[in-house]
Amino acid sequence: MKTIIRSCLAGLATVLLASTAMSQSVIKVGVSQRDLGAADPAFGIGNGDEFPIRQIFNVLVGPKDGTTELRFDQLQGELAEKWEMAPDAKSFTFHLRKGVQWHRGYGEFTAEDVVFTIKRMQDPKTGSAYGSNFRDITSVEVADPYTVTIRIASPNPFFHALALAPRFGGYMQPKKAMEELGDKFRHNPVGTGPFEFSSLEPKQKVVLKANEKHWGGRPKIDVLEVLYLPETAARTLAFVKGDVDMIEGATVPGWQNSLRRQKPDAVFDLGRPGSIWAFHLNMTRKPLDDIRVRKAIAHAIDQRVWTQAFGDFVSPIYGIAPQGYYGSLGPDDVPKEADWPYVYNPEKSKALLAEAGMPNGFDIDVFVTEREEYKSNLLILQEMLRKVGVRINLRVVEHTSYHNDIRRDLNTMIMYSSGQPPLTQAVLNAFYKSSAIVGKPTRNMNFSHYGDLGGNSDALMQQANEETDDAKRIAMLKQVQIDIMRHVPSIPLPSPAGNWIHNGKTLEIGFPVKAYMGTFTLGKASRLQ
């Protein structure tokens, strides 16, 4: 009789376990990347890395949910409960939440972890793509386990937006776990965020589970799966069929309208201001070292093509930073110079090439990532440039390899997309400061080598960062963009909105979305069916 009872109880336990597993709420998100590059905040690049990183890790302070608001008095606390900026904008004090726990039993988050994170990100040996964001920090002072003050070399009222915001290396990292796991941390991360790393199936998916002890409350979603679906057609089909609840959209002409017809309940979460799209010209490579050639390339590009192809999904761009960024150029700020290079004029383009000794144009080898929007943009440029005699021999490579190789300075013309904080300073620091040139210890994204070649605007950039008068700072930011553009180190392209789409019948995010997915979490989201 006892054997029968034990058998029945064992069977009941199995049923209950199966029922619990079946009742778990699971959300699946498809991203346009072939595989996880890194889940370590120091190395994550691209939405396929940034999305899971944002779910696993926290920053000290960031924009309010679903926004890009980065004014100091409008921030939302995460690992910090209170924060102050000194009147001279050279020191920032953060009062940390007490009792915040690292995943997997690695203990409490304290000021020691803040110090560790900043030192790790500053260290050239770390080799982080975001190291330059921390270069102005002179000291990190700990008053007690829950109070830390960051001091910087010169005034910068937007320091927090450059170094501490989501997506750009500002995520706090665990000293104990990092020292214990070493290189394994890259694909076995430990954070404090609403979701905890569970498993990785290479080139398939990352599985995250709800953090039962999250300081903000346990998420309503039990399991969050990030699926790697690099092909636009496959990702779109999975969404239309209901196999995934959210996807990273494609910046391809006609794609948005087609999806709306196929999936009327799709909710388009469009982040604005737009992302940064630019075509960088590597001035260390001939003939791109000749400004006449760079101007010829600029004159050959008709930016109206993008607005005709994408409609109001993209916004015209007049400077280095997209419209809507703090300090960006508007149409009235564009110089009325006769030879301003960013005016479509193919005949002028051909004349400049002839003047440079290439009346028949030239051939150049370029490689690009397999991601659809990168390929689409470069194919548009390839056709425009072909008409003036610049013949691009194009090779398509895997996305992670592309990012690695352009940071090794292997490409000649670099198509690049980036979602920076909506500040012109962030764009300048990442792409046009001499210390940000690829190959230098900061490992940043100055692919053109501007600053060492073609001109140098470091002094005015620094002056703008330090200026505390708002009107004067904006004027400086506009002037530095004009100075840089005269040397044509890159061709800014119309900026598309951030583009994520979710199923309105199965997923409620928890707040209106007007920002990029990599800037907020799904910690408040719920499954509707």
Write structural notes for this entry.
This protein is α+β, with helices and mostly antiparallel strands and 529 residues long. It contains 15 helices and 22 strands. A hairpin with a 3-residue loop joins strand 8 (195-201) and strand 9 (205-210). Helix 8 runs antiparallel to helix 10 (346-355) and helix 14 runs antiparallel to helix 15 (470-485). The longest helix is centred in the first third of the chain and has 21 residues, at 2-22. Residues 1-21 have low confidence and may be disordered.
> Which homologous superfamily in CATH is the superfamily of the domain at 276-496?
Dipeptide-binding Protein, Domain 3
Strands side by side in the biggest sheet: 8-9-10-1-11-20-12
Specify the overall morphology.
globular
User: How large is the radius of gyration?
Assistant: 24 Å
What would you say the CATH architecture of the domain at 276-496 is?
Answer: Roll
Q: Assign the structural class, choosing from mainly alpha, mainly beta, alpha/beta, alpha+beta, or little secondary structure.
A: alpha+beta
Main sheet overview: 7 strands, mixed
Q: So what's the CATH class of the domain at 276-496? A: Alpha Beta
* Percentage of residues in helical conformation: 25-40%
Number of helices: 15
CATH topology of the domain at 276-496: Dipeptide-binding Protein, domain 3
Task: Let me know the average pLDDT.
Answer: 90
Q: What's the total count of β strands?
A: 22
The CA-CA distance between the termini, in Å, is 43 Å
Relative strand content: 15-25%
Query: Uncertain regions: pLDDT < 50 for 5+ in a row?
Result: 1-21
